[in-house]
Every structure is written in structure tokens, then in C-alpha cells.
Amino acid sequence: MRRGVGLGNYIAVDSPVHALDPAAKLGIVSAFTVGLFTAGTFPGLTLLAVTVIVGTLAASVPISAALRGVRTVSLILVLTILANALRWEPATVALVRVGPLAVDGEGLASGVFFAVRIVLLVVGTSLLTLTTSPVELAGGIERVFAPLRWLRVPVGDLAMTLTIALRFIPTTVEEADRIMTAQTARGARFDRGGPIARARAYAPVLVPLFFNLFRRADELATAMEARCYRGSDGRTQLRESRMRPADWASLLVAGILLIATGVAL
Known about the structure:
Shape: globular
Helix content: 55-70%
Distance between the termini: 45 Å
Strand content: under 5%
Order of helices and strands: HHHHHEEEHHHHH
Number of helices: 10
Strand order of the largest sheet: 1-3-2
Largest sheet: 3 strands, antiparallel
């Protein structure tokens, strides 16, 4: 069986990024997302890419783990580039022309720009789950959305749902890999034929995949019920997290720099 497919799995190491409060990391990731979508030039994306590299090195996580999510969105990256680069009978000078279809230089640059933005978004946000345990992440989300309790929003249940959804991402990838490995051992091939043939080859994977995911969800619901989980009301935490001065300083400095980079460039 193939290994190293734990997309989004928490990596427990001792690093400055791991030591940050989960609420501070959520704020930094939010500022990074804002800066990423406000940046309109390649220099802006380059500076944001540098921050991602620095964050990855500071987190002491393998580069391969941070880049693992890029393979998952590889099809989206290809479609993004093609959707911007291809032109039908373009009036401008084309870089490559095949019949009525042509690749426009400006469109290609635009497609690469949006593809790089997607890659940075995937890698940057994956650092959050790589450096924060599910329990800490749930607590951080609950504290960030705590003001919504005044509007009678079940913040604790919302945080628990988001955390479970994030945790099921690596579970889904691992389950799909296990099923594909088992079917490959029985003679199934997923790398032959055109796009339609390959899509049909993946069809037998979906049925057992969804069956196993529903089974895991039912087991999780049973386990939570057996532990008397009845929602967030009255629940306490073993370790109460608090924003320290270092967390506030990191959030303010990183947030201002990230947003300013996106707005300026």
C-alpha cells in the first residue's frame, strides 16, 4: 500500500508555529487569504509565496507534507490554465494554434497567475491543520466565533462540525488509496485510456468509498453518544487556551504585513 497520503494530518513537533495559539493561527490564515485574493500581480504572489516558505520552515514540517494537497487539486489547476489560455479564433497573435483553437499569451499568463494563487491557498491553509491538533483547532474556532453566541448561534457545535470535516479529509484520502490499492492488486487499471475511460475506471472506487465513509460517520456518532456528547452547552475543556502577548504580536504583525502586501501589490 502507498504511504505518505495523510493529507492535512497533524504533525506533532516542537516549533514556534505549533506553539502559537490556535485562534492566532486562524487569524493569520484569514489575513493570508485576504492578502492572497487582493494581490493582483506576480510580485505580490511572490512575496506571499516567500511567507508560505518561511512559515513552512518555521513549522518544521516536511515540504512534501505541505505540498501534498497540490496533487489533490491538480485537475483544477489544469482546468484553470486552459480556461484562461485557450481562445476560439482569437484576434490577437497566438502562441500556439491548432485549428480554431489557440493559446493566447495574455490568457496563459492569467491562467498561470490564478493557478499559482490556488497553490498558495492550498499550501498556506494546510499549515493550519499540519500544526494544530483537531482538539486545539476546535477550541480555537469556538473562541473566534464566540461573539455569535449573542445571536443564538451554536458556536460549539459549529466548531465541532468544522473540525470533524477537516479531520475527514485525510481519512477520505487514505480510504480511497486503500481501495485503489486493493483493486489494483486484483487487476484494475486506473492509468489506461482517455479521460472518459479513466473516469469509468474510478467508478467502482466510489461505492465502497462512500460506504466506508458512512460507516465511519456512524461509528463516530455512536462513540460521541456513548461519551454523553449533547452539544456545546455546559462543556468544559481540559486545557483552557488564552492568547498570550506573543500570540497577539504575531497576529497583528503577520496580519498587517499580509494584507498590506496584497493591497499594495
